[in-house]
């Protein structure tokens, strides 16, 4: 705090998205792969805005996605969506999973599809099969609330934490 009780002199008012990204990169978060089988193909994207435990009854989780995401436009139509918390073992594949080249995202990444079409990564510390409960506009993003339908977790597997990835 400054001498007058206001913000420290290093505080900057900004609406610059890049400055916001740099500031929020100081906040550790888990990375999740969000995926589904769409029109005969496994589709996946990575989100760093995952929030677990939004509600336990009913079981709800959230993530945010840019409104301009073409991958989300495809996934949004799927009846079931898989959410896999990336493990430390996925570190060498995290950039690939988030790649703009959607065709190579899942190449050599062990995964499976549930009977209802959710795509889940193998060896993830937590895997959730979900359906969309709500989607809310949030600036240039959408806040997606998912209802957890089935889950699997393995406390012996360490999650991958961003920005340490």
Automatic annotation (TrEMBL):
Q: Which GO terms describe its molecular function?
A: FMN binding; riboflavin reductase (NADPH) activity
Read off the InterPro entries from this record.
Flavin_Rdtase-like_dom, NADH-dep_flavin_reductase, Split_barrel_FMN-bd
Record's superkingdom?
Bacteria
Q: Which Gene3D superfamilies match?
A: Electron Transport, Fmn-binding Protein, Chain A
What range(s) does the Flavin reductase like domain occupy?
A: 24-164
Q: Is the Metal-binding keyword given for this protein? A: no
What the entry lists under Pfam families is as follows:
Flavin_Reduct
- Keywords, in A-Z order: Oxidoreductase
Q: What family does this belong to?
A: Belongs to the non-flavoprotein flavin reductase family.
* Name of this chain's protein: Flavin reductase (DIM6/NTAB) family NADH-FMN oxidoreductase RutF
Origin organism is Quadrisphaera granulorum
């Amino acid at each position: 705090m400054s001498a007058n009780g206001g913000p420290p002199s290093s505080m900057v008012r900004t609406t610059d998205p890049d400055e916001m990204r740099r500031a929020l990169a100081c906040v550790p978060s888990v990375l999740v792969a969000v995926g589904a089988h769409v029109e005969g193909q496994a589709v996946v994207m990575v989100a760093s805005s995952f929030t677990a435990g939004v509600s336990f009854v009913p079981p709800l989780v959230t993530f945010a996605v840019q409104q301009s995401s073409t991958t989300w436009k495809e996934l949004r139509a799927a009846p079931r969506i898989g959410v896999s918390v990336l493990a430390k073992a996925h570190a060498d594949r995290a950039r690939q999973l988030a790649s703009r080249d959607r065709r190579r995202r899942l190449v050599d990444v062990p995964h499976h599809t549930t009977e209802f079409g959710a795509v889940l990564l193998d060896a993830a510390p937590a895997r959730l099969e979900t359906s969309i409960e709500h989607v809310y506009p949030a600036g240039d993003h959408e806040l997606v609330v998912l209802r957890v339908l089935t889950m699997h977790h393995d406390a012996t597997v360490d999650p991958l934490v961003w920005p340490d990835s």
